[in-house]
Amino acid sequence: MDEKQQLITTGHYLMSNHLAWGTSGNISARVDENRMVITASGTFMEDLCMEDFVECRIDTGEKIGARKASKETPMHLGIYRERKDVNAILHSSPFYTTLFACSNEPILSELFIETMYYLENIAYVDYYHPGSQELADEVSEKAPEANIIMMRNHGVVVFDDSISEARMRLETLEMTCRMILKAKESGVQLRRIPEKTVQGFLEDSHYKPRKRLVGKTTN
What we know:
Number of strands: 8
Number of helices: 7
Order of helices and strands: HEEEEHEHHEHEEHH
CATH superfamily: Class II aldolase/adducin N-terminal domain
């Protein structure tokens, strides 16, 4: 399945599972070392088709074709430039994740298997207008340190070496934010896994190879 078809399938999945809404997100995939495809401006995730993507050179940002690329293209380009291992980027504003992006509530990673792995590295950037070069610069600066970047009062961008893994990060994040909020509403005290056990899981459980980041030292 080529990159566009995978992104179409992913866009439909995000909409069907309340991980995106309306035109409030954009997704992209690396085609090769210096090319990416990204959703065009104003596209609805639910209605994506093969004509709804714009191809861009990663080094220069030059686009191919008449369609206007998503206004968040500079942010995607910055991540691909900083992270040669990244092949897929998903930006959206799921309800619970965005709620946390609009608050100071911490997102816990020491809760269960998937959070230990997929939420190990989360970075934050302050609010900048969507599509601005300031936002792209801030996200690009944080990209070597994390696989999830929470954008204050905006939403989130997740990235990984495949579209399926990026989607799993987004799903895990949204579920965890919902779990934390529901626990608070219900007066349930969440029990966190001890740090030593978390490190043991990440290094020795053979669940998945631990993601090594160039900008962050892991124990």
